[in-house]
């Protein structure tokens, strides 16, 4: 112990001195001056300052952590780490920010250092998508970060598989709970069962960024009012090659089709990012962007690839088909679509014949209504196949 | 501070697509040549659009993990990186010779971006093809009595793709190490389907010049060559076909030595990589070396 005091006394004696989170130490011709919201000490010798700092240890270790451990080489990492523990985010060198939106919970009314340390000793938790970060501080003012699945907030740590390397998150993020490949890192289907029990500040951010790439820089840019949102029109406008066809989906008659895309792909139930892109600069979509902690700045590659398919499909005209269904059969078709759309098919028990999307119920419907070519109601898809 | 950013295609369907990118990034990371090593993808995350903002260093070397110069290296990647003033003419390439260009990017105006040519056209890629043959045969001296086929897509979509295949096949031939060397294609003559027609050697190593294993290298090519009737049942290495033993290597991009090519690209663009090349060449060797 004491190295943080040496660093602090050195810093206080040079330049503008020390100033962070309502704690200032500076030197003038009269000696050192120490100031907090509650007290001011003047005319201290170096020995006197060291003695006095014993009563301000939380302030001193707090200064040391943010100035010497985290530093300012990466403003976005620093901002994220401060947000995690409820410190004011724009303090400590960030300037020019006019962070918008949800930062009132931190800025302006941030807790004093002793209050924050009291909370940190018990652990302060934040959700970031499906991640739960918990930061604690020990008696030396050193932070330790735990990262786990947010749904496992109450799980015993010993019941979870421990990991220490940030890049281990890559494998954890690759497959969902059923072992299926996740094409979208921010898909709302992150598997659990793991814990990073003791990360340092830098590794915490690396791990978070491995689970959710670019989430921290985008969140940081948003707070500073600098997020470069590319709306639907911009994003599809720059597509070339096989994706340039998506441009033809906009036919100048509204944006209902893009509402459907956003409802299908971008809903909170599907993706943990908060959709900030709209139809264009002047036209918002009619569906909600969600409540995610970090923003989505443009239609992602999954949305673009799916939209290419929808552009083709939606180019078809409608036709009238005639087949008869009982009321229960119509509802069953609806049940099946609902079950697939909500990824519930695996949850419907084999014996639960009361569920429309039950396998036996679906097989019965197929046996009854499909002809040998798989046509519903025996009605061909193309009228020309009727011959 | 200098960073390496490897950009690659990635996939919505197949985790094997990005696996080599991650493997080579890890190799470079472990050798410590760069302060940071990041990856970015066309189909995965971070997107190429957002990868530069994940970088802290001010000197950034971007290496495309692609086989040939073309649509991705010339249009998609520069556009998505938002390279200012990008002009493909600055590469002054004949389709094989793109090395690097130094630009800024509007996304991170304070950084210097060294945008490199693709790994597939670098001379060091020839050594990876040979290393792949060593790995698949388990013989660090493989060559005598063996034929080697380098397999590519063909010119259907990109004429530079065939140029890269020919280039490496010629270079391996000049080594005078294998009895025969032949370039083969999936969608044009000489076709990989007829591989045994093009070799007299009983043993033939077949190496596809692809970045990652996927549909083409795992399903198409093994079935086309007659290694198996159904890719799902797998195939033997070597497999007997028409009196030849075919040693099918799968995508060359999965070979550990690919990390060397990534480093070479960055070094050509001015990155300071110390003795990393030697370290990587040794660390990625899977066949035992003969005692001298």
From TrEMBL, chain A:
<dbReference type="Pfam" id="PF18009">
    <property type="entry name" value="Fer4_23"/>
</dbReference>
<feature type="region of interest" description="Disordered">
    <location>
        <begin position="90"/>
        <end position="112"/>
    </location>
</feature>
<protein>
    <recommendedName>
        <fullName>DR2241 stabilising domain-containing protein</fullName>
    </recommendedName>
</protein>
<dbReference type="Pfam" id="PF18069">
    <property type="entry name" value="DR2241"/>
</dbReference>
<dbReference type="InterPro" id="IPR041181">
    <property type="entry name" value="DR2241_middle"/>
</dbReference>
<dbReference type="InterPro" id="IPR055772">
    <property type="entry name" value="DUF7348"/>
</dbReference>
<feature type="domain" description="DUF7348">
    <location>
        <begin position="3"/>
        <end position="71"/>
    </location>
</feature>
<feature type="domain" description="DR2241 stabilising">
    <location>
        <begin position="113"/>
        <end position="223"/>
    </location>
</feature>
<feature type="compositionally biased region" description="Acidic residues">
    <location>
        <begin position="92"/>
        <end position="108"/>
    </location>
</feature>
<feature type="domain" description="DR2241 4Fe-4S iron-sulfur cluster binding">
    <location>
        <begin position="224"/>
        <end position="309"/>
    </location>
</feature>
<dbReference type="InterPro" id="IPR041346">
    <property type="entry name" value="DR2241_Fer4"/>
</dbReference>
<dbReference type="Pfam" id="PF24039">
    <property type="entry name" value="DUF7348"/>
</dbReference>
UniProtKB/TrEMBL annotation, chain B:
<protein>
    <recommendedName>
        <fullName>Sirohydrochlorin cobaltochelatase</fullName>
    </recommendedName>
</protein>
<keyword id="KW-0169">Cobalamin biosynthesis</keyword>
<dbReference type="InterPro" id="IPR002762">
    <property type="entry name" value="CbiX-like"/>
</dbReference>
<dbReference type="InterPro" id="IPR050963">
    <property type="entry name" value="Sirohydro_Cobaltochel/CbiX"/>
</dbReference>
<dbReference type="GO" id="GO:0009236">
    <property type="term" value="P:cobalamin biosynthetic process"/>
</dbReference>
<keyword id="KW-0170">Cobalt</keyword>
<keyword id="KW-0479">Metal-binding</keyword>
<dbReference type="Pfam" id="PF01903">
    <property type="entry name" value="CbiX"/>
</dbReference>
<dbReference type="GO" id="GO:0046872">
    <property type="term" value="F:metal ion binding"/>
</dbReference>
<dbReference type="GO" id="GO:0016829">
    <property type="term" value="F:lyase activity"/>
</dbReference>
<keyword id="KW-0456">Lyase</keyword>
């Amino acid at each position: 112990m004491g190295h943080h005091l040496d660093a602090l006394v050195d810093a206080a004696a040079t330049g503008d001195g020390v100033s962070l989170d309502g704690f200032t130490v500076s030197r003038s011709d009269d000696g050192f001056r120490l100031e907090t919201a509650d007290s001011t000490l003047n005319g201290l010798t170096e020995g006197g300052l060291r003695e006095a700092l014993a009563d301000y240890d939380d302030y001193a270790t707090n200064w040391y952590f943010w100035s010497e451990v985290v530093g300012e080489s990466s403003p976005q990492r620093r901002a994220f780490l401060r947000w995690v523990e409820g410190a004011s985010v724009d303090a400590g060198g960030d300037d020019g920010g006019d962070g918008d939106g949800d930062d009132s919970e931190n800025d302006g009314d941030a807790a004093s250092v002793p209050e924050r340390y009291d909370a940190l000793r018990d652990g302060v938790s934040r959700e970031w998508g499906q991640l739960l970060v918990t930061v604690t501080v020990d008696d030396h003012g050193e932070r330790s970060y735990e990262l786990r699945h947010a749904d496992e907030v109450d799980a015993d740590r010993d019941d979870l598989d421990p990991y220490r390397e940030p890049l281990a998150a890559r494998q954890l993020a690759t497959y969902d709970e059923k072992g299926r490949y996740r094409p979208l890192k921010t898909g709302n289907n992150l598997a659990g069962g793991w814990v990073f029990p003791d990360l340092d500040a830098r590794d915490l951010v690396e791990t978070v960024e491995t689970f959710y790439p670019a989430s921290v820089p985008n969140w940081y840019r948003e707070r500073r009012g600098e997020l470069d949102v590319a709306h639907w029109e911009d994003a599809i406008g720059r597509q070339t090659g096989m994706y340039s066809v998506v441009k033809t989906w906009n036919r100048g008659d509204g944006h209902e089709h893009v509402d459907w895309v956003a409802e299908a792909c971008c809903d909170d139930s599907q993706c943990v990012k908060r959709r900030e892109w709209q139809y264009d600069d002047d036209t918002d979509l009619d569906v909600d962007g969600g409540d995610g902690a970090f923003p989505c700045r443009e239609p992602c590659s999954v949305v673009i690839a799916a939209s290419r398919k929808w552009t083709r499909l939606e180019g078809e005209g409608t036709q009238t088909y005639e087949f008869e269904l009982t009321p229960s059969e119509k509802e069953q078709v609806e049940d099946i679509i609902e079950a697939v759309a909500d990824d519930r098919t695996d949850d419907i028990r084999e014996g639960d014949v009361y569920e429309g999307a039950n396998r036996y119920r679906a097989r019965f419907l197929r046996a009854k209504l499909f002809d040998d070519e798989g046509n519903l109601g025996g009605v061909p898809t193309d009228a020309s196949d009727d011959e | 501070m200098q960073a390496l950013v490897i950009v690659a295609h990635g996939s919505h369907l197949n985790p094997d697509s990005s696996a080599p990118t991650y493997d080579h990034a890890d190799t470079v990371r472990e050798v410590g040549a760069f302060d940071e090593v990041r990856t970015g993808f066309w189909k995965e995350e971070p997107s190429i659009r957002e990868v530069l903002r994940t970088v802290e260093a001010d000197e950034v070397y971007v290496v495309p993990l692609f086989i040939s110069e073309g649509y991705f290296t010339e249009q998609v990647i520069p556009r998505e990186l938002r390279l200012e003033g990008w002009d493909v003419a600055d590469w002054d390439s004949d389709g094989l010779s793109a090395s690097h260009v130094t630009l800024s990017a509007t996304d991170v105006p304070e950084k210097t971006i060294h945008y490199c040519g693709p790994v597939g056209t670098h001379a060091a890629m020839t050594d990876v093809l040979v290393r792949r043959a060593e790995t698949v045969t388990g013989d660090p001296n493989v060559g005598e009595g063996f034929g080697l086929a380098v397999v590519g897509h063909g010119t259907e979509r990109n004429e530079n793709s065939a140029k890269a295949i020919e280039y490496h096949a010629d270079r391996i031939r000049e080594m005078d190490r294998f009895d025969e060397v032949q370039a083969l294609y999936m969608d044009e003559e000489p076709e990989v389907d007829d591989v045994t027609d093009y070799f007299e050697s009983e043993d033939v190593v077949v190496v596809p010049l692809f970045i990652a294993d996927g549909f083409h290298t795992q399903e198409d090519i093994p079935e086309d060559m007659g290694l198996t009737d159904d890719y799902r049942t797998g195939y033997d290495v070597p497999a007997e076909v028409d009196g030849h033993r075919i040693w099918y290597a799968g995508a060359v991009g999965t070979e550990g030595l690919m990390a060397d090519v990534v480093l070479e690209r960055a070094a050509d663009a001015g990155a300071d990589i110390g003795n990393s090349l030697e370290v990587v060449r040794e660390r990625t060797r899977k066949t035992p070396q003969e005692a001298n």
